[in-house]
Amino acid sequence: MQSQFADDRSFQSVDQTQTPELSSSAQTEPPEDTETPHTSFTFETHFQGCMGMYSPPDTVAEYLDAHEGWFCRCAQPMTAEPLGENGYILTVGQFGAFGYEVEPKMAVKLDPPQNGVYEMYSVVIPDYTPPGYDVDYHASMTLAEMDPSDVQWKAKPQVSPVVTQVTWQLHLGVTIQFPQFIYKLPNHILQKTGDRVLSQIVRQISPRLTYKVQKDFHDRMQLPLPPKKSRKLVSLNPTEDSETTENTDNEQQQ
Question: For the chain, how many structural domains are there in total?
Answer without folding.
Answer: 1
